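pls ignore typos typing on phone
glycyl-adenosine-5'-phosphate + seq
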Amino acid sequence: MTTDVVTMDKIVSLCKRRGFIFPSSEIYGGIGSSYDYGHYGVLLKNNVKNQWWKSLLQERDDVVALDSAIIQHPRTWEASGHLAGFTDPLVDCRTCKLRFRADKLEDAQCGRKPSKHPGETPECDLTEAREFNLMFETTVGPVKSDGSIAYLRPETAQGIFLNFKHYLQFSRKRPPFGIAQIGKSFRNEITPGNFTFRMREFEQMEMEFFVPPDDAQRWFEHWLSERFDWYTKLGIRPDHLRLRAHDQDELSHYSSATSDVEYLYPIGWQELEGIANRGDFDLTQHQTFSGQKLEYVDTVTGERYLPHVIEPAAGADRATLAFLIDSYDEDEIDGEPRTVLRLHPQLAPVKAAVLPLVRKDGQPELAREIELDLRERMQVEYDPGGAIGRRYRRQDEIGTPWAVTVDHQSLEDRTVTVRDRDSLAQVRVPIGELGEELERRLRSPWRSPKLEG
Ligand code: GAP
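k done
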C-alpha cells in the first residue's frame, strides 16, 4: 500500500480548483457548512447514486423505488419520535459564546479557540446541557400560524413508511422486499463541519427492507455484508473500511441493533453508513397515529403480521467524499509532480478525454469526430489546448481513466493512442474499435492501484 498523502485541506482545495464542490453563497461571504456541487461534482455524485440504484434495482429483483415529498404531514414526526426525541445536547460557552454538542466536546476542540480568547489560555465556561431539536421548522401556506407548522424531513426513511401501504395494495409486494429512495434531508446540526461530512442539507440513500419478523436477524446480517461489499467493489480499500456495532447506549430510539460502515477519513474513523434493525417500531407507530392498518396479510394462508425492517442508510455526500479521499494520490512523472484521482472508472466523472496532439493538420477535426462517436456511449471531453503533458495532468486530476490522443499517424492509419491514468501504458487502437475497447475496460473488474506497491 502506498503512503497516504491525502488531507482534508488538499481535498477541499482540489474540489474548489477543479469545480467539484464550492462553498455555497460565497459572493455573500458563504453560509456555514452549505456546499454546491459543480460540473465534475455533479457527474461524480450522480455516478455514486446510479451505482447505488443499480445494485438495488437492476442487480436484484426484491427492491423497488420511491421518490417521496420532503414536506410530509407533521404528524409523521410525532409518530416517528423525531419531534420528541431527535435532539442533541447543546451547551453554550459563556466566555467564547460558541455552541457545542455536549457529547462531542473533543471534536469541537472546546477550550482551544485562540481567536476567541486573545491573550489568555482559553477555558470554556459551559452552561448546563439542554436538548436541541435538529428538525428544520417551516410553515405551509401564506399565513404563519400554529396550525401551519411543518418540518423539512430529517431522514428520507419516513416517506417510505408512509407509502408502505401503497406497495402492498397496488404493487402486491410481499415480504421480504425493500423500498429504496434517494433524496435531500435537513438537520439543524449544532456543529456541522469537516467539509461535506456533516452539513445541514445533505442527500441520503436509504432503503427499508420489510421482512417476516422471524427472519430479521438473517436479513440484518445479509445487508451488513452487501453494503460493505458495495464500497469495496467500487474501489474503497478494504483496510480503510470497517463495520462497527453500536453499543447499547448509542442506539437510536427505534433500533434494536445497528452497525455502522465506517471509513478512515483524514479526521479518523467515522460513520459512512448505518445499518439498523428497526423492528416493527415505525409501522406500529404509524398504524397507531394514523389509525390505518399497515399489516401484511397473506391472501392464501390468512397469515397477518407487521413486518420488521432492516434499514441500510447511507449518505450520498459522505460516500462521494470517501471516494474522493480514497482515490486521491500524488506521484511524479518525468520529474514533474502529479495529483491524480484513482477513481473506479465507473465513478469517474469523465471516462475518456480526446486530445489532438497539435491544433493543425486535420487532427482537431478527427478528434472531434471521435469525440462525437464516443459521446453516444459514455461521458467524454474534448480538450485541444496546451502542452499534451499538461492536458494529461488536467485529466488525471479529475480522475479521467483514459486519454485518447490523435497524432499525425492517426490521419494515416486511423489509429489513436489510449493512455491509462494509473499504469501510464499507451497502446494504439484502431478508431473503429475504440468505443468497444473503452466499454470493455469500463465493464472489467477493477481494484485500486493504491493497494499495490
Ligand atoms: N434513517 C436513518 C438515518 O437517517 P443516520 O445515521 O442519521 O440514519 C444515515 O443517517 C446517513 O446519512 C449517515 O450514515 C450519513 O452518511 C448521512 N448523514 C447523516 N447526517 C448527515 C449530515 N449532517 N451531513 C451529511 N451526511 C449525513
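The CA atoms of residues 49 and 316 lie 7 Å apart. The first strand starts at residue 21 and ends at 23. more later
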